[in-house]
Design brief:
The chain is an alpha+beta fold and 605 residues long. Helix content is 54%, strand content 10%. The chain has four domains: 4-137, Alpha-Beta Plaits, CATH 3.30.70; 140-253, no CATH class; 268-310 and 338-442, no CATH class; 468-590, Isoleucyl-tRNA Synthetase, Domain 1, CATH 1.10.730. Strands 2-3-1-4-5 form a five-stranded antiparallel β-sheet, with helices on one face. It has a three-stranded antiparallel β-sheet with strand order 10-12-11, with helices on both faces. 40% of the residues are buried.
């Protein structure tokens, strides 16, 4: 089947508008051309759709013209369109948009090749033909060229440079043929390198430097092959001006110590509109103070770091370069002579930094939920996933719901202003859903086992993950199905009115006493195993109850005897079932195991 190509040449299109058009082209390929192998390419001055297997019904001028007009209108692309090219195999499709009619030609790089006309033979040769004329239309290839050039410059200088993805995307998205231009700029001896780097980053230049006070290298990118000396001179003027402005902001900030900025936070509103940043600081002090002893952090250091943690948001440097939040505070704290551990904590280093980072992430999650966002909102998902990852990777035994209850009054004041009165319920639901997704997607746990994690520990990501992993491993053995059977027979004896009280003096046979003894053993050992977060041993201890349970079910009739005896028997059963509930929710697995009595298998465990 012939290949299909549609190219839309434009004046330079703003990035946000171009992304909207890219999404529209992708939808058009799937919904109207019915393509399975479509690629959408783009640069600042063109968008292209290449499809290897469009349906023949979808490739006709009239229908494509209609679709293209709708795309251009919905993405506000109409004023920018200059030229169209459209091929199906070697046949030109006369698609129209505004005043442009498609042909079989494209145009070379506007600056380096004077928009020379390019004859297009086919979709397959399209990218190669444009590359020969100074246009890299594949945005992924341009990004790799930029990244590799920066990496090469970093290696030559012997310096590791971590460039943010958004900066790489901005640079590669702003050129049709990236060409590296290296320059030099003087960094004032007192200006921290992260500040200088942020100043150049705002100009889409990458600083490659280790220390201040010496001429430093930076890398920029021109669009196409140009006179490097002329471009370098211009970039050096831009870089020098950016550094001078940055140093001016730094000097204004250094007129007073960082701690003086804390009082300014009363007049600075939180990003979510939930009170002032000073109120956020007080919440962080409370939260991090509760977290510190759990992870063995120095509480005095944590409290001082939390007190200073938001202060840099009131500084000139962070107002200009928000990405420096945290780094600026650490630098200013060090210059003020604050304790080294406090400076490290402000950068997220050490146990103290971990306590503060967890507190801030958790407060942000609570804030966006109070703001009204639901559990599917990208901001909520990202915050919850980051928090869960941080706690599980560091193996931190922290119940976030208990943490929330300890500071509930501080959030209750916000909740009333936001019209929300069930923050705990929303946090619990969010954490439960995101933990389940992590267990299924990252740890290979089935949805049934994820559901078997006790509700009481779903607010503790590390415990919840440990429980699910142990359940996954133990459920692979034959004994586990036997355990499910024993548990199922035991729960079948319970009634809605069963309580958790029994008197051993009322036991009337060996089966009751045997189950009681095994129950006492399990109770003590489970205390130890769960304290140590060893869910494999905890589940293994439940196996020890199975034989006594089976004997009890066989030899004891809970419905016989006096009402007192019956209540006592059911009380023992309820207590035994309660031991199982401490470890996992086996009810979630009974319905999916074909070997459990009276249950039909519906899915794999």
């Amino acid at each position: 089947m012939p290949e299909f190509l549609l190219e839309i040449e434009t004046d330079e299109v703003p990035s946000a508008l171009r992304q909207r058009a890219v999404s529209g082209l992708s939808r058009m390929a799937q919904e109207n051309l019915h393509c399975q192998g479509a690629r959408v390419l783009h640069s600042p001055r063109r968008l292209a759709l290449i499809a290897s297997d469009p349906s023949q019904d979808g490739v006709n001028a009239a229908d494509l013209t209609t679709e293209l007009r709708e795309l251009a209108a919905s993405s506000s692309l109409i004023p920018y369109v200059r030229h169209l090219a459209c091929l199906y195999g070697d046949q030109v499709i006369a698609v129209r948009s505004a005043n442009a009619v498609a042909s079989g030609t494209s145009h070379a790089h506007w600056r380096t090749h004077g928009e020379e006309e390019i004859e297009l033979a086919s979709a397959a040769s399209y990218e190669r033909a444009l590359a020969e004329k100074g246009v890299i239309v594949d945005q992924g290839l341009r990004l790799r060229m930029v990244r590799e050039a920066i990496d090469a410059a970093s290696r030559d200088a012997g310096i590791d440079v971590d460039v943010e993805d958004d900066l790489l995307a901005a640079i590669s998205g702003g050129v049709e043929y990236p060409q590296q231009i290296a320059g030099r700029v003087n960094i004032p001896i007192d200006l921290p390198i992260p500040f200088a780097s942020a100043a150049l980053r705002a100009e889409e230049l990458v600083l490659i430097a280790r220390e201040s006070g010496v001429p430093a290298t930076f890398v920029g990118f021109s669009d196409g092959k140009v006179d490097p000396d002329a471009v370098r001179a211009n970039y050096e003027r831009v870089a020098g001006s950016a550094i001078r402005r940055c140093h001016g902001l730094f000097s204004r900030d250094r007129a007073a110590p960082l701690a003086d900025s804390v009082r300014k936070l009363r007049d600075l509103m939180d990003e979510q509109g939930l009170g002032s940043v000073w109120e956020k600081t007080e919440r962080l002090r409370t939260l991090s103070g509760l977290i510190a002893p759990i992870i063995g952090a120095n509480q005095g250091v944590v409290d001082r770091a939390a007190f200073l943690s938001q202060a840099d948001r009131a500084t000139w440097i962070v107002r200009k370069f928000p990405s420096l939040h945290g780094s600026a505070g650490a630098n200013y704290a060090a210059l003020d002579g604050e304790e080294e551990g406090i400076c490290h904590a402000l950068e997220g280093r050490g146990k103290e930094g971990t306590a503060l980072a967890i507190a801030e992430k958790f407060d942000d999650l609570c804030s966006v939920l109070l703001e009204g966002k639901d559990g599917r909102d990208p901001a909520v998902v990202d915050l919850a996933d980051d928090l869960i990852e941080k706690l599980t990777s560091a193996r931190i035994d922290l119940d976030l719901l208990s943490l929330l209850r300890a500071v509930s009054e501080q959030y209750r004041l916000l909740a009333s202003s936001m019209g929300s009165d069930d923050l705990e319920g929303r946090v619990a639901e969010c954490l439960s859903e995101r933990l389940a997704q992590r267990l299924v997607n990252e740890l290979g746990v089935t949805s049934a086992i994820a559901a078997a994690v006790p509700r009481e520990v779903r607010g503790n990501p590390y415990r919840g993950s440990a429980c699910a992993v142990a359940l996954k491993k133990m459920s692979e053995g034959e004994r586990f199905s036997l355990l499910l059977g024993s548990y199922g027979r035991m729960t079948a004896l319970l009634t809605a009115r069963s309580d958790h009280h029994f008197d051993p003096a009322l036991f009337q046979g060996d089966a009751e006493r045997s189950l009681w003894r095994e129950y006492l053993k399990a109770e003590g050992k489970l205390d130890t195993y769960l304290e140590e977060i060893d869910y494999e041993l905890a589940i293994g201890q439940l196996f020890q109850l199975a034989e006594a349970i089976d004997r009890y079910v066989k030899d004891v009739d809970p419905k016989s005897g006096s009402s007192e005896v019956k209540r006592n028997r059911l009380g023992l059963v309820a207590c035994v079932v309660g031991q199982f509930a401490r470890v996992c929710d086996l009810d979630a697995l009974l319905a999916v195991d074909e070997r459990s009595p009276g249950k039909k298998r519906r899915d794999g465990i």
